[in-house]
Structures are given as C-alpha cells and as structure tokens.
Amino acid sequence: MVRCSRWTLGGGGGPAAGVRVNPRQTELERSRRRGRGPRRPPRAARHNVLVTERRRTRRPTIVDIAAAAGVSKSLVSLALRGDEGVSDATRARILGVADELGYRSNTLARGLVQGRTMLLGVLLTDLANPYHTEVVAGVEEAADAEGFTALLAHGRNDRRRLEQQLDALLQLSVDGVVVISSWLDPRVLTEAARRAPVVMVGRPAEHPTGVDTVANDDAAGATAAVEHLAGLGHRRIAHIAGSRRPAARARREGYLAAMRRAGLAAEAAVHTIGDDTGRRAAAAAELLEAAAPTAVFAVNDLAALAVLDRAHVLGVPVPDRLSVVGYDNTGLAETVRPRLTSVDQPRATMGRLAVTLLLERLGGRTADRREVLPPTLIPRASTGVAPAG
C-alpha cells in the first residue's frame, strides 16, 4: 500500500481506494496507538483561545491571567502589584495578557485579603462652599501621594443625610474618613471611629472621643480682621455672623472681644444669617441700611461677597466709603472686584494634615490629637482708610 499526504490508494484493510482521509484524524489515530492523547496546541494558541473565551463569559480574574500567560497565580499577583521577584519579560507578558483580558483590579476584594481597601472617605456639608472643596483638594492630593483613592460624599446641608452618607462610606469598608463638617453629633462620630479612623476638619462643639480634629483658630482670625480695620481708622465695624455652630460662634465672640479691646464695644453691630444661605443678601442689606458701618467683617467669603454686591446696588464705593473683610481666603477672594481682603485658614494644608492623622491611626496610634492652625489676614483692595466724618 502506497500512501501520500492526503489520499490512501490500494487495499490491504485500509480505506477504500480514492477515499479522502483527514490528516488530523490520522494524527489522532496514531496518538491513540502510542497510548497518549493528541498534542496540546502551542502556548500562543491556548492563550488566544482563553482570551477569547474569558471576554465572552465573565469578568476576568488573576486565575484567568495565570492560565492565559502560563504562569502561577502568585506570580501574577506579584506582577500586578509591582512587587519584586518577577523578571521584566515575565511582568510585561503578564501585564499584556491582563490588558487583553480586560482585567480590572477588584479593590474591595483585595481589601478583604490584605486588610486594606486603599479607599478614604471624604464627607462634606456643602459642595457649593469653596472652603469645603478646597479642603477636599488637600485631602485628595495627600491621599493620592500615599496610594489611596478618595471617595466623596455630599451632605447637601442636611444633618440626616450627612449621617446616612457617613454610614454608606463605612459600609464600603473605607480605611478612614475625613469629615469636613461640624454638623454631626459627637456621639455619631465616636461610633463611626469604632469602625474606621475618623478625622474631623473644623471646630467641634465638643471633642468626640476617638476622633482627631484639625481646626483653625477662629477667634484669632476675627481679632486680626478687627485690628486691621481699626488700624485703618474705622470705628463703626459691623459683623455678619453665621449660625450658632462652633466656628461661627468663635468668630463672633472673637469680633466682640476685639471690639472691646479696641474701645469700640458701643459701635459693635451683629447681623446673623444662620444656616440659611439665602439670608446672605438680606443680612447684607439690613446691615448696610440700618447700621451704616464704614467697615464690615463677614463670617466667610460668601457672606462678604453678598456685602460687596449690596454695596454695588446701593452705590456705595468699596473701599472709599466701605471696607469689607471676608474669612477663609478661598479662590473667590482673588476673582471678585475689588479683590477681597480675607482671613486665610490654610484649607489645603488642613486637608493634607487630616490624611496624615488618618495614616497615623492606621499605623497604630490610639491617643486623640487636636491640631489648631493659626490664621493669617491677607490684605487686598476691598479695605482702605476710613472715610472722613
């Protein structure tokens, strides 16, 4: 019997003459006769099949990467984490396979294994307030430098929602939470700190047990504002106050104390906006029309902008007839005209310090820390010498 690659000719128990034979079937038959299965396809072929199949079915895992790359699961884990013990060539191959499979690291699942999610929660009262967002910028910068991802939760000026959002962050197994708000009950923060480290940025009514705080010396900031204005010759210095919350209260008390020290207690005038942000314009109007001050110290930059706006409506030139000082020194102070004199509390620094305190807690520190940062008055064009008369 004579055989060629694709046809079998002749008899002798083989296929009938002229019958076409599949070479692959012949290979399988020879393999069975030798007592072994068919040859496995080369690694590249297996890899392509695995990649295609995994894409069709489900989210790929490191087990899938290991199978497709022909390496162990532990080697894949080392390569994906960037650890030592993996050659450059092997790491490149593993990363290439991971990319082809569409692999994405499951942060929460990894956290269950490693005891860390590398997530930090950030809870704030009001996204519309630039003070809050500028503290967040500092938190995010410091978190990113340490390999953490910041998750933002917004309370929308609602105490109940703040509590709900805090619980939601903790349910995500964040490694810690930065709370940029003084609205939460200290007992709520203490309970949260039993589940994960908590740092509060702001002045608490009372210090929650187990919670670190980062605050600004509000009374000192108010004093700096009054002394600046008194130094320019102003006597009728009024104050637009915030709510009865700790920081606003400390600024109001600092203003009143500074007026007394300057011998101007009889000239003190306070108009309160409370928690209603819509009251800013009305309070500015009431103050300018009733108290007729030559200078105003506002509880924050947003309130100061309301005064500037009302002065413009009334035709009162700033700073020729009215000087205005804000608080926080947010980005608004540089963009408004005239540029706003404001008391600077270092918002980004406070955010970065909050992350540092969280990391210390994660490192094992148990004692509470209370950090108070000094403010600095930044003079700009909205303040000038008191008008004559």
UniProtKB/TrEMBL annotation:
Q: Which residues form a coiled coil?
A: none
SMART domains in UniProt: HTH_LACI
Bias-annotated ranges (Basic residues):
31-46
Which key words tag this protein in UniProt? DNA-binding, Transcription, Transcription regulation
Name the SUPFAM superfamilies for this protein.
lambda repressor-like DNA-binding domains, Periplasmic binding protein-like I
Q: Where does the HTH lacI-type domain start and stop, copy by copy?
A: 60-114
Record-linked PANTHER family: LACI-RELATED TRANSCRIPTIONAL REPRESSOR, LACTOSE OPERON REPRESSOR
Which protein are we looking at? LacI family transcriptional regulator
